[in-house]
Amino acid sequence: MFSWLVIFIYVAVYSRFAEAEILGTSDKLLELYDFIVVGGGTAGNVLANRLSADRRTTVLVIEAGGPNDVLDLQIPYLWTSLIGSAYDWNSTSTPQSGLGNRSVSLARGIGLGGSSSINAMLYTLGSADNYDAIAELVDDESWSWNRLEPFFGKDGTQLGSSPSPVMDTIEVAPPRFYQPTDGRIMQTTQENSEFPFNNNTNSGKQLGFGWSKSTIAPDGTRSSSATVYLKPEVINRPNLHVLLNTQVTRLLQLDRTDKTRFDGVEFVENVRSVPSRTKLVAAKREIILSAGAYGTPHILLNSGIGDARDLTSLGITPKHDLPSVGHNLTDHALTTLTWIVNSTTTYESIQRNETLRAMLLDQWYRNGTGDFSSSGIDHVACLRLPSTADIFNSVPDPSAGPNTGHFEIIITNGNIFGGPTPDNLIAATLMVLTPMSRGFVKLNSAHPLDKAAINPSYLSHQFDRYTMRETIRATQRFFDSSAWNGYVLSRAGEFATVDLEDDKELDAYIRDNVVSGLHPVESSSMSPRGASWGVTDPDLNVKGLQGLRVVDASVIPLIPAAHTQGPTYVYAEMAADIIKKYWNIV
Ligand SMILES: Cc1cc2nc3c(=O)[nH]c(=O)nc-3n(C[C@H](O)[C@H](O)[C@H](O)COP(=O)(O)OP(=O)(O)OC[C@H]3O[C@@H](n4cnc5c(N)ncnc54)[C@H](O)[C@@H]3O)c2cc1C
Ligand SMILES: *[C@@H]1O[C@H](CO)[C@@H](O)[C@H](O)[C@H]1NC(C)=O
Ligand SMILES: *[C@@H]1O[C@H](CO)[C@@H](O)[C@H](O)[C@H]1NC(C)=O
Ligand SMILES: *[C@@H]1O[C@H](CO)[C@@H](O)[C@H](O)[C@H]1NC(C)=O
Ligand SMILES: *[C@@H]1O[C@H](CO)[C@@H](O)[C@H](O)[C@H]1NC(C)=O
Ligand SMILES: *[C@@H]1O[C@H](CO)[C@@H](O)[C@H](O)[C@H]1NC(C)=O
Ligand SMILES: *[C@@H]1O[C@H](CO)[C@@H](O)[C@H](O)[C@H]1NC(C)=O
Ligand SMILES: *[C@@H]1O[C@H](CO)[C@@H](O)[C@H](O)[C@H]1NC(C)=O
């Protein structure tokens, strides 16, 4: 009771948001904007900011969700509680054949900031190899690591090193609050050469254990695309309108003389409360789709842009035959393992103890410090399978190059995903960074407000299953290092009884426990100009059309061996540059 009262008073008095002017309804919309950005998420808000910097250019952002001035979105510690909340689309996959036909939840943000408002805030760029492989794949050097460097700085994200656009805005910081287990992690990197230390995993060379960098502001609050790219002074620009609680249903061809041009955006307001009738707004120069890896292909397909045969069979008139739309969806498969530890200072102790939580919240309000100012993730490790791994006898190495990890290990001081347990734990969250499984986003029906069928196809490829097995084994070797003697006591939960030597037992465990890594990309993939596959050209224009670009994680044509917000921000900054140059915007 007392703690809730404390919370209430602090919310009322200290909430650190300035009132920003945002359109609650479409009543004040103009009929025509130079640019309409669909989706006020991670990438969308970058474009809103950069394109509206020129006051002669009118920009409208349409976002399905509400505002981000909500306490839960500010407190870094609470990020796991946002999964399945009002700020999550709550999408679910189709039954996954690689996971024993389980469906898994596919969290993604709804509301200003999109997924950057609910994510774990890790800022990883991935390897230079990744970007260079993409530049080669799309046959355009401008997407290479060296050419993108202006957007993230010579030194990756080493603090304060560079005046790059991303660094100017997105706040990226090393851990603000160190966990008592950090010392043992560092000790392991010194005593076990399988797990070397890397002092800057964002330098283009990502291999090894490094201190995490997170998008958390110096005052201990979450830094999202909404908090940094849509600051009040940006939102208050008279030439920028941000329309919330409005779902885009389709893109239309208003100018009927030009079959290659989509210039109308159809939308419905308040879909989740009292839906409006469908309404329309027009774009003079461009529509930019930034609705994310699930939302963007969904809107394209609703609009008749996609595989003409699939669309026809659903009763949708194909407007532009583009068979790749929705295909090649790729995500990281993820699983979390736990061990029982000899400690009382882990996340579980916080989860079990309401008094302690109230104290930590109080510390966060007063001072912006402590556990609540942290995502709980202090280290990220990207590691490679040995070159002698027997999988390479049957499968070519899918990694982008020798400096790219095949898998990731994140160690946390307790299970940040779990509820309170009687035991104190240490957890390892594992991901396959270079998956070979490919899935799709398809329509279930011709009704644009119906959910799409999303199939990331987790672990459908043997390489991904192999790599997940080897990642689990590597993690056990990590904890077998002497740094953990007397601290890590035994494996916990269902994992405790799995015979790690036995591929079949491990496979069964993996099938039952893998979930989404929350990094979907590639579903509206960029490809070389003139290619028979792909959705956009390297300038991000949808192939064969005018005035329609895709700028979000869905255009990334090869999944980065990284958490995907960093690459998404970099892509969005690059896209803003391309668009500004094309239209002579300053
Ligand atoms: C829970 C979670 C944790 C994550 N943790 C990390 C992490 O720690 N580090 C990291 O790098 N990455 C992380 N990611 C992934 C990362 O956040 C995403 O890859 C990235 O934010 C994607 O950006 P985007 O612009 O493509 O899409 P989003 O940021 O999702 O933006 C899409 C926006 O479009 C809106 N939209 C969709 N459809 C419509 C429509 N029809 N009409 C109007 N608006 C629409 C959505 O509401 C949303 O605001 C995480 C993701 C999640 C969900
Ligand atoms: C997601 O599910 C939660 C819990 O059921 C619900 O409160 C929330 O409104 C849902 N999100 C959306 C966008 O519908
Ligand atoms: C999964 O579903 C497919 C198709 O419905 C079926 O053939 C298969 O036996 C199922 N597998 C399991 C493990 O249930
Ligand atoms: C890591 O880099 C930082 C900043 O560049 C430096 O201060 C620190 O000493 C380095 N640490 C190690 C162990 O090399
Ligand atoms: C998927 O991507 C690959 C390139 O990575 C491409 O060769 C293939 O044609 C794509 N498939 C579809 C259906 O677009
Ligand atoms: C809960 O946390 C408070 C503050 O740290 C501490 O005094 C108390 O002993 C804890 N309660 C239990 C049951 O551990
Ligand atoms: C408040 O924060 C500062 C750093 O920002 C730190 O040095 C100090 O110890 C903190 N005080 C409390 C009471 O947590
Ligand atoms: C737990 O740690 C303490 C030291 O902190 C040690 O004395 C004790 O032996 C450990 N317990 C086990 C079971 O290893």
Q: What does this entry look like structurally?
A:
This protein is α+β, with helices and mostly antiparallel strands. The chain has a single domain, classed as 2-Layer Sandwich (Glucose Oxidase, domain 3), CATH 3.30.560.10. Helices cover 27% and strands 17% of the residues. The chain has 16 helices and 21 strands. Strands 1, 2, 6, 7, 8, 9 and 21 form a seven-stranded mixed β-sheet that branches. Strands 5, 13, 14, 15, 16, 19 and 20 form a seven-stranded antiparallel β-sheet that branches. A three-stranded antiparallel β-sheet has the order 12-17-18. β10, α11 and β11 form a beta-alpha-beta unit. The N terminus is likely disordered. The structure holds flavin-adenine dinucleotide (FAD) and 2-acetamido-2-deoxy-beta-D-glucopyranose (NAG) (7 copies).
Draw up the topology in text:
Layout: H1 2-14, E1 32-38, H2 42-52, E2 59-62, H3 71-74, E3 91-92, E4 105-106, H4 128-137, H5 145-152, H6 165-169, H7 182-191, E5 208-211, H8 225-229, H9 232-235, E6 240-243, E7 246-252, E8 264-269, E9 279-289, H10 292-302, E10 305-306, H11 308-313, E11 320-321, E12 327-329, E13 333-341, H12 347-352, H13 354-367, E14 379-383, E15 407-412, E16 425-432, E17 439-442, E18 453-455, H14 462-480, E19 488-491, H15 503-513, E20 515-516, E21 548-550, H16 565-583
Parallel strand pairs: 1-2, 1-9, 2-6, 9-21, 10-11
Antiparallel strand pairs: 3-4, 5-14, 7-8, 8-9, 12-17, 13-16, 13-19, 13-20, 14-15, 15-16, 17-18
